[in-house]
Design brief:
The chain is of the alpha/beta class and 412 residues long. Helices cover 38% and strands 17% of the residues. Helix 7 links the parallel strand 7 and strand 8. Helix 3 packs across helix 10, helix 11 runs parallel beside helix 14 and helix 12 crosses helix 14.
Length: 412
């Protein structure tokens, strides 16, 4: 896995790459703590997006003129960048989609639905994002399969014993997040993959909160599929990645029909292109994909190890700082967690918390975070969630804590 690294982690220089961080909100400096929902974009990504439209824009793969060939070269180069970034064997294992949600739906419909039988089981965790629940439910309804979920420890830590207790001889798929978007729990993907394969099951990983925070090597992880969205990796909206083992992709039918995913079309029948193009019908998000390549270049210029070390330092400080706020309860305190700090306060609803601190320029997320089964399990309607990125400072959590004291004064 390729991973360039800056000699020194210069937080202020990194923050200067993000124009939006210099703006004010309600007359206060912006404190952005909602990166788990969507990360802000550095100048390098914004420039790549604009250049793709201004300098080289044309449709890809079909044209023989200069602009089309230039766009195609830039677009296709992203597969190699992404493959190197996540340790894939080749760019041919990189399917470019509209996001992780589409990627998971593609796996569910094109691998699972043709193969599952009544009584087969799909095993997920209680901490899944809805995008890693609903597609499996839809396939289960179509095939007669069942969706089962294993729970976590009280502090949100992963439990191999609880996973094993929910497995059976009918387990065909295990699908988990690399990192929980609510609890921050880091799942031991490699260990789970070994267990899945020993049972003859497929291993799927929702990597949206993983690839954003830590080095990822899909070969070492041992998964069969790994998916993520560009917009959480400092890239643009509308682009995602599905990595799959080449031999598995070769066995899957296309997800959508249309231009570019075909080999030969007649009125009577069609034959299909080889992967990954087989799964990429129609005109893709050309400029956005090129900008994804710029996002990969950006994080690799810093180094994912350096990013993780910085974020862990900030996260540790965040837990200490917020724990001192009277009446605040941290949700998810598993050792080695990543990315997010979810919490409740005994005096105010998370929606009220978010609204009040927004007046101080502090942006967090409040709600169920597309994880309603987890909220039900925790017996909570919602939580407040602060999340970190490469640009997050410890001072940001000072600002959050100070605003939360204002919430206590108002509601306490």
């Amino acid at each position: 896995m390729m991973d360039g690294t800056r000699r020194n982690f210069d937080l202020e220089a990194i923050r200067a790459d993000f124009p939006i961080l210099s703006r004010e909100v309600h007359g206060k400096p912006l404190v952005y703590l909602d990166s788990a929902a969507s990360a802000q974009k550095p100048t390098q990504v914004l420039d790549a997006l604009m250049s793709a439209y201004q300098d080289t824009y044309a449709n890809v793969h079909r044209g023989l003129h200069f602009l089309s060939e230039a766009s195609t070269d830039l677009y296709e180069a992203v597969r190699g960048k992404v493959a190197g970034f996540i340790g894939a064997a080749s760019g041919d294992e990189i399917v470019l989609t509209s996001g992780a949600t589409m990627s998971l739906n593609l796996i569910a419909r094109c691998w699972a639905q043709p193969r599952l039988q009544p009584g087969d089981e799909i095993l997920i965790s209680i901490a899944e994002h809805h995008a890693n629940i609903v597609p499996w439910q839809m396939v289960a309804e179509a095939t007669g399969a069942k969706v089962r979920a294993f729970t976590l420890e009280d502090d949100g830590a992963f439990s191999m014993a609880r996973l094993k207790a929910e497995m059976s001889e009918r387990t065909r798929i295990i699908s988990v997040p690399h990192v929980s978007n609510v609890l921050g729990t880091v799942f031991p993907v490699a260990e789970i993959a070994d267990l899945a394969h020993d049972a003859g099951a497929l291993m799927v990983v929702d990597g949206c909160q993983g690839v954003f925070h830590m080095p990822v090597d899909v070969t070492a992880l041992g998964a069969d599929f790994y998916v993520f969205s560009a917009h959480k990796l400092y890239g643009p909206n509308g682009v995602g990645v599905l990595w799959g083992r080449s031999e598995i992709l070769a066995e899957m039918p296309p997800f959508l029909g249309g231009g570019d995913m075909i080999d030969r079309v007649t009125i009577e029948a069609s034959t299909y292109a080889e992967p990954p193009v087989r799964f990429e019908a129609g005109t893709p998000a050309i400029a956005e994909t090129i900008a994804l390549g710029a996002a990969v270049d950006f994080v690799q210029s810093i180094g994912m190890d350096a990013i993780r070390a910085h974020e862990q330092q900030v996260l540790n400080y965040a837990h200490q700082r917020l724990s001192a706020v009277e009446g605040l309860n941290l949700i998810g305190t598993a050792p080695g967690k990543s990315g997010v700090v979810s919490f409740t306060m005994d005096c105010a609803h998370p929606h009220d918390i978010s609204t009040i601190i927004d007046n101080d320029g502090v942006a967090i997320r409040a709600g169920h975070h597309c994880a309603q089964p987890l909220m039900d399990h925790l017996d909570l309607p919602s939580t407040a969630r602060a999340s970190v990125g490469v640009y997050t400072r410890t001072e940001d959590f000072d600002a959050l804590a100070n605003s939360l004291e204002k919430v206590r004064r108002i509601f306490g």
